[in-house]
Amino acid sequence: MLYQSTRGNSPQQSFLEILLGGLAPDGGLYLPAQYPQIDREQLDSWRGLPYADLAYEILSLYCDDIPESELRALLRKTYTPMVYCNGRTEDNASDITPLHWLGDEGGTRLGLLSLSNGPTLAFKDMAMQLLGNLFEYALQRAGQELNILGATSGDTGSAAEYAMRGKQGVRVFMLSPQGKMSAFQSAQMYSLHDPNIFNLAVAGVFDDCQDIVKAVSNDLAFKAANRIGTVNSINWGRVVAQVVYYFQGYLLATKNSSERISFTVPSGNFGNICAGHIARMMGLPIEHLIVATNENDVLDEFFRSGVYRARKSAETLHTSSPSMDISKASNFERFVFDLLGRNGKNTAALFDQVEKAGGFDISKDIVFKEMSKYGFQSGSSTHQHRLQTIRDVYGRYGVMIDTHTADGVKVAREHLQKGIPMIVLETALPIKFEETIEEALGKPAECPPAFQDIKTRPQYVQKIAADVGQVKSYITTHLK
Ligand SMILES: *Cc1c(COP(=O)(O)O)cnc(C)c1O
Description:
By secondary structure, the chain is of the alpha/beta class. It has a domain at 91-121 and 237-441: Rossmann fold (3-Layer(aba) Sandwich), CATH 3.40.50. Helices cover 40% and strands 16% of the residues. Strands 3-4-14-9-10-13 form a six-stranded mixed sheet, sandwiched between helices. α3 packs across α10 and α10 packs across α11 (271-281). The protein is globular. The relative contact order is 0.15. The structure holds pyridoxal-5'-phosphate. Residues 122, 124, 155, 233, 266-272, 323-324, 404, 427-428 line the site of pyridoxal-5'-phosphate (PLP).
């Protein structure tokens, strides 16, 4: 399998060649040259496979430059009940991503696919844990090292640290805004004490952290000399790992592969739902893919109107589903490339307009008028909707959901179709956003036993000024 850039002007490369990098040289994102096709018979033959083996069936189609036995071993090491058992109350930990039916709403079965039982209690662990093992494997094979520099306001940073801790050949330098994360999130990150993990609390806000990362990455000489890399959400390895749980969700929700189901996905950077789009392009019988946003509704606006308008930082709202507070959706270009008939030149022209004019309008274009064949629908929600939905789902079904999942359930309910099961992807556990749970329910969020003492554990974090020079010298003095 070879990968091409969405802007059509970079050489095609193999999976391991693109794994450790970011954007393609022409500024585009990598996608496979074609989507492997899965027929119903093959799909039915995968029923009942353990998650790691289902992942093998799917990933072996995409990573054919890793020998089969090694890929299978990497997947079996990643997707174990040991890694994905946090917060699990049911006895089905071996499913890795169990499906939890809530009930019947107006003739439609509504369910949650649990994706947040990994070490940081959010769905990013599903892909990031695999990426940790893939990075270690690829670096060893190439005899290289990598120093990951990132900025986080919460989820991404901790998922990356928990994925890379203890991995050979990898160090993580993670910038976070001092005092701006929730107590639970800081405790999760700062309580790590592995020699290859460095937490830097920057005196500033998240944008300052991001600016420092950009400045360091733009210093090409420093970047090359110190082997600096990233693990941001445009990494293809993350997207492809996420394709697996759409198949697993489908197989758990259906009895045979003539049935169709829909998924609703709480969305920010379009990474999670992009994997759903790919699963559908591979032939998975998905009726609709429903994009659920919060008040930062860039994506909902596009799917309703054909107008894509990236927001300025000042227009980006801080909401109670903070992991979806985005100004532009960094993975969206992958879908646009398919929408434009995989025309790299036209894709490059549209994203050039995003750079220069802040967005584009394809509402009059034939490709937008014919977009329904991709199955997308969308909706958005507000803080009040989240509170109501958390209360309603708890009252009606006794299930506590987090604020992001609540955005999903609210929007899913607006798109129910009789006879077509609706699966909402559960993207985090409520304890991560406990302030809003308390506000909604008047009682504390449920906390998995393994996390009960997290806030009292010792924390390891270096305070640092919002200064590029100081961050650079911290990095160079900590490379041994
Ligand atoms: C990252 C994140 C999202 C958004 O996922 P995207 O891939 O950026 O669309 C939603 N919910 C939670 C809890 C997250 O951490």
